[in-house]
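Hello,

Our lab assistant flagged a job as stuck in the queue for most of the afternoon. It eventually completed. Since we weren't sure the result was trustworthy after the delay, we are filing this so someone can double-check. Below is the sequence as submitted and the structure that was eventually returned. Let us know if re-running is recommended.
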Amino acid sequence: MADDDEDDCMLASEALAESPLQHQLYFVKDGEELMDYLYQRGEYANANNAPLPGLILLDLNMPKKDGREALREIKTNPTFRRIPVVILTTSKAEEDIQLSYYLGANSFIIKPVTFTSLVEVMKTIGKYWFNIVELPY
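-- returned structure --
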């Protein structure tokens, strides 16, 4: 999960803990750190600390490299473009929705405002991407 809001990360972690999924959630605070994680460079040089994700939850509005820039880089890289990217953001702007799908996002979800709703969204995301969809490996 790439998100600069610590509260949103904490809530997402707690929401995932409420769901039946047993997946590890890794957090990065901006697009630059996400790319370091994916390329396994810097603090993520040890591959054991940065396994290739099965899904990326991506906020659009982050410092340094925002989610749009990170999405563009992910979806133009032959190794990373097969990783599903779910935009999870507070933005409701039509141009953000259009651009996200144009750049290759697999889903666009507006962050729920209540914890109960976030738990439901996290359960649904997990069920869909890890139990229903068949992904290439």
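-- support follow-up --
The delay was a queue issue, not a problem with the job. The result is valid. DSSP finds five helices and three strands in the chain. The CA atoms of residues 61 and 70 lie 11 Å apart.
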